[in-house]
Amino acid sequence: MDNAYAVHDLYAKGDQLMNILSACAEAGNPDRAIVFGSTSKISFAGAGVAALASSPANIADVKKHSAIQTIGPDKINQLRHVRFFKDYAGVVLHMQKHAELLRPKFEAVVSTFESELGGKGVATWTKPRGGYFVSLDTLDGCAAEVVRLADAAGVKLTAAGATFPHGKDPRDRNIRIAPSMPPLAQVKTAMEVVTVCVLLASLKKLGV
């Protein structure tokens, strides 16, 4: 599994996830999980420090193969990160700065959905306390149409069903909203467009 957002909390109190390695070991399957993570969305995109965690047997096997594949890690980049973050407290402090930038954008997404779609029975959405995405569920069979309408209006969304295996959502209802990159004003405008598209697709679906 890719634990890409382990320290990406948007609020002081983040969600606490179960330790999958401990859970697998307790269930008698210590070799079941291999967990990957990196500082790609913490320090420099594509130039962070990666990490892998698993059982002792799996780690030994990975070391055997990686010893053939590469001479060694990028020690200069590792040193750069250690000097910048210093320790785990330094990582937490840095991510609090991330949260200050990202939190208003996520709150803008959720508040727009609540004001424009709330109580209409045509969509539901998550209210994440961390990570980089809001998950929007439309009526069945409407997600691709919402993405198409938004694209025609100038708002580019992640492809419908992108979070499903092979990008195929059997109910065609899920859209992953990624508000981290655009400025806050653009996020607000874009989400207003998206809510109109959701309503239009829903009316078409319901034959109204």
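the 2nd protein, sequnce then structure:
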Amino acid sequence: MVTVRDYIGNFVPDKTRAQFRTWLRKIVQSRIADQYRKKKRNPLEQVQREASSDDTVTSTTNRIPDLNEVELDRLIDGKLEQAILTEARRLARDHVRMEDYQAYDLFQIQDLGAREVGISLGISPVTVRVRALRVRRVIESQVRRLVNLLEQPNRRDLR
């Protein structure tokens, strides 16, 4: 509601663009997404909360998972997915405008709010989201391309 209060003055009724309820729904969806993004920001927070709620103190060495118990495939898949995403972001940076990538980096990667990013870049929060979406689409396209390259049957076997 605070966001609506802050931006209601900027809303201009225009039947060719959108209705008020569409504008309002988009603000609500964005705020909800921001909250989920903030909760997922630091996965170690959950571990720290669980550790602090225990009555007993566990040494650091006891909290390190035994690799025999960890599903090695899942661990490798996670590293591969992260490597693919990193490479896709690097490739996307060469295919989008720097202003768009800067908004994406601050909003998606550094997890700042659209309003904060907008103030820092001198653009509206809506423009921040639009620019981030443009970059996300390019990154998704690069991810698909990289995955297709990895899945080609005639690629070299690394064994």
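The chain has eight helices and no strands. The chain has two domains: 1-64, 67-159.
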